[in-house]
Amino acid sequence: MLLGVRVSRRRTLIAVAFCLLSATLIAAEKGWFGLAISVDADGALSPTLRSVTITKVFSSSPAALAGLVPGDTILEVQGIVVAGAKADVMKAAMQKSVGETLRLKIQRGATQIREVSLIAVRKPPEQ
C-alpha cells in the first residue's frame, strides 16, 4: 500500500507539472497584431532604422480596431524611438505574447500624431 501511495503522489506531481507547463506554453503563444510593415534601414549585419511604415492592415485585427491604416508611420514602439534604433531591439520590442499590449506612437500625414495600444491576439488560421 505504501508503494501505491508513492505512485499516486508521483502521478499527481507529474500531472501538476504537465498542467503548469501547458499553461506556460499557452501564455507564451506568439501574439499577432494584424499589420505588415516596411522598414527603411542602414547597415547589413546590425541595421539601424530610419523609418517603419505600415503597408497592410488586416480586417478585424487589433491594428484595424485601433484605426491604423497603410501609410501610417511608426515613430515609437514601447517608448523606443524608431529613427536611430537597432533593428533587433525594435523587433524584440514588437514581439508580444497573446494578451500582451504593444504601445505605438503613429504619425499620419504631416502633422497628425497619436498613441495607440494594441493587444496581441492568436493569429487567425487564414492569415
Low-confidence stretches: 1-26
Intertermini distance = 55 Å
CATH superfamily of the largest domain: PDZ domain
Largest pleated sheet: 6 strands, antiparallel
What is the CATH class designation of the largest domain? Mainly Beta
Shape: globular
Question: What is the succession of H and E elements?
Answer: HEEHEEHEE
Summarize the topology.
Layout: H1 2-27, E1 35-42, E2 48-57, H2 62-65, E3 73-77, E4 80-81, H3 87-94, E5 101-108, E6 112-119
Antiparallel strand pairs: 1-2, 2-3, 3-4, 3-5, 5-6
Describe what you observe in this structure.
The chain folds into two domains: 30 residues; 85 residues, Pdz3 Domain. The N and C termini lie far apart (55 Å). By secondary structure, it is an alpha+beta fold. The N terminus is likely disordered. 30% of the residues lie in helices and 32% in strands. Strands 1, 2, 3, 4, 5 and 6 form a six-stranded antiparallel beta sheet that branches.
Keywords:
127 residues; alpha+beta; 6-stranded antiparallel sheet; 3 helices; disordered N terminus
